[in-house]
User: What shape does this take?
Amino acid sequence: MSGFPYLTVTIASPLLGVAGIALLPRGAQKRAREIAVATSLITLVLAIVDAVKFNVGGAQYQLTESHTWISQFHIDYSVGVDGIALVLILMTAVLVPVVLLASWNDGKNTPRAFFALMLVLEVMMIGVFAATDVFLFYVLFEALLIPSYFLIGSYGKSGEKHRSYAAVKFLLYNLLGGLLMLAAVIGLYVVANRTVADPFDFPTLAHAVATGQLHFSTGVERWLFLGFFIAFAVKAPLWPFHTWLPDAAAEATPGTAVLLVGVLDKIGTFGMLRFCLELFPSASHYFTPVILVLAVISTIYGALLAIGQRDMKRLIAYTSISHFGLITLGVFAWTARGQVGATLYMVNHGLSTGALFLLAGFLISRRGSTEIDAYGGVQKVAPVLAGTFLLAGLSSLALPGLSSFVSEFLVLVGTFEKYPVAAIFAVTSIVLAAVYILWLYQRTMTGPVTAAVSGFKDLTRRELAAVVPLLALILVLGFAPGILTKYINPAVTQSTSLQVTTTPPPSIAAQAQGSDQ
Amino acid sequence: MSALAATTFTVPPVEFGKLSPMLIAFGAATLGILVEALAPRAHRYRIQVGLALVGIAAAFGAVLALAKTGVEVVAQGSVAIDGTTLFLQGTILVIAFVGFLVIAERKTDQNQDAFAAQGASVPGSQAERDTTRKGWQTTEIYPLLMFSVGGMLLFPAANDLLTMFVALEVLSLPLYLVCGLARHRRLLSQEAALKYFLLGAFSSAFFLYGAAMLYGYAGSVNLAVIAQHVAHPDAGSTLLYAGLAMLGVGLLFKVGAAPFHMWTPDVYQGAPTPVTGFMAAATKIAAFGALVRVLDVGLGGSSAVAVWRPVLQAVAVITMLVGGILALTQRDIKRMLAYSAILNAGYLLIGVTSTTAQARAAVLFYLPVYGVAIIGAFAVVTLVRDAGGEATDLSRWAGLGKRAPIPAALLAVFLLAFAGIPFTSIFIGKFAIFQAALNAGAPALVIVAVLASALAAFFYLRVVVVMFFSDPLPDGPTIAHPSIAVKTALAVAAFATVALGIAPSLLLHLANNSAGILAK
Assistant: This one.
């Protein structure tokens, strides 16, 4: 346990901004934006400090802190990061200031509430990645829904009916998944409490599972796995639990949509990688074929539907479903390469889809329509907008040299090592990605300048300040993915899930583990 | 108990100190009647409210003073003073205090309280208009409710079935009356009172019949004696099971479990809203206390548990489904909260059927946190007003979050708590109950409860959607500015709901300790 609570300070830092916004006098409502951006930059600096303090090659979980929270149920406030959690926290800390900057004019009549909710969301998002107590993770996982719900329902496109429909759909899907996970969390606690001293502490649990000290009967393990997995599959979202995402992403403001797709959904894939694989290894193996099929369907289905969309934001949402299919594929490929690729993909997807969503938002704010058909020839009027849009799009389709390429390649190779058929099917999504991105670009940016588009201004300085950092990161990480993989590699190899794969099949493994450990 | 064969009547020793919380409540109620008879009309309101609040606070002080004493069965074996009793009595008194703050409110409705000027006047008659114009008030409700509080204090403490029956009647009769005294929509209110009275009397009869059968089985109404007979049966069990079933009907009626829930929505809707809040919270606490005592003390033997547990589990499932599904169709906020109360009774029943000390502790934790939240929710309902009293139709609440952010936000907090969102007290309560149930080996109940929670989330959220995402109505209801008392009550309820969600350890600790001490 390190002396200074680096992680807690990072997690709590956005609350400073919330307090600042709450204290704003009535007349100075608009100041909320400056306060929010400034605080989120402080958080970014703190997250970078965390990364610097993180000793690559050191213990699996670092910067750990633990305090008793609810002693009756052995619940602790414990936080700590491995390389995977760390890069996701960094991604979150990068995306939030960018999103706040891009959302400058959103938040309608109540900008204070809008920016405060964004900051509260950041607290929970960083907290959920940092939590090493299963209960703390669950609590933040669920609590996240409330600020997101209000961000979708209260802001975003006009048309109260659709907005509240999308918000309620988002919340119900996720709440149902979350409640199933609650049952599984309690079940895990009840079983673990019999043999493990600290039944909510994740590192302890993972260790106990790997050593056989914590053993579930086959049926119980499968049910618990399903409880966790369905919650994560809804969050990620995986086909057929995905239908909330296009609605929510299309109705929310572009900024909210970026956080929704870029960060919130990663909690699902992060949860699969950490909780499902490490706590329930035998059940994970058992369900792998089904999950791979779902992942491949998501990949192809998402891409096909993206091609068919006429609404720009829905299109980007469907591309994300396709990408989440690939991430899930990498997670359940059971190879180090696949899992490193999946983690890297989570970050890269956050950056490229984030940039794409924000640029689409800028485009939409100039014309007021989300329909693709309403645009045309933008590149002649607003070349910078078109150029950045193209760059973000190319990153999304994983052009070599841009960051997504590395991760997509790793995922596909990692999957091919063990599940070649799944990988072969998934590869088709590369072609489909080229179709939906380039066709989107062609329809909106090229061709004759339409009347509605002719008055377009190019990107303003504020808008550039929001997207340039993302595009810069996409380029840098495309050429030097080692910046991140240096953190991710040891985390994947240290994680117990891959070590367990070397043991014999589930039924024998249970007996063998007891004797050889 | 020795038979009193002596010709001279020896006064049985009664431990007045141990009974002091109840005695204080009844004493305050009796004084209230004298006030009603002797004090001039203009001063009655102040005196009555003061007397009631002081009485509740004093009784709470007495509970605290007793907290250090161990298990003791007093008053000739008829009242058990133990950790569970004292915890529930303390809870009821806290709830009653908050409830009375809302009940005594006069600022929200042009200096009138929520009660008819004169209960006896025919609705719409000249007499009604006269008394209203003169500014008469039914201050009798305060002593009535104090009697009810006294009955509630006795109900979970009663260690024999007759005392329990007396407590049941003492707590119920005043409530039947008060339910019929709403100032607005009096016909609805009177109908609710009549319905409540008839069904309540019916269920009391069941209870009494069940008690008689158990007397026939064990030769005593004392729970400890019944427990002995359950453990060492010396006769057939027919009377036991029949008595158990009848007693169960009486108690399940009071907790509002399906299929004995029919009265709940009508009574919750018709009763004056502050009383609904008080009733929803306090009656439920007292009734669950009594249910736990009957089942765990009197019928806790394994042979009896094997009979009633599956039945009660089935009741819990039906209750959750009825509460969750029927709430979906409600358009009236009070009725919706009534179905939510039924749903919550289902969760509590899961705890009751788990029969471990851990589960009892979970129930003890759940009762106060739920009670405080439901009082808060009904207090918010009293603030949203139309010409004809409260605007309880959900459609009238459109855009409330924009026009009155604070009441709307408070209600949102309570509703999110009911929905079981983390960082609220009820989430911790659910967690405690579910883990006790899983520990007791009832995963199916937990799954049903989880699915019912998801269903419930939908109708809680519908209110949030209407309040925050809809545009305000042009002729929407007005938002009353409440007095400092109601503001305090709301602040306390909201604070407790959030604070006990973040730092529940103290109350959990108290509940754990109290649940472990049960006079058997």
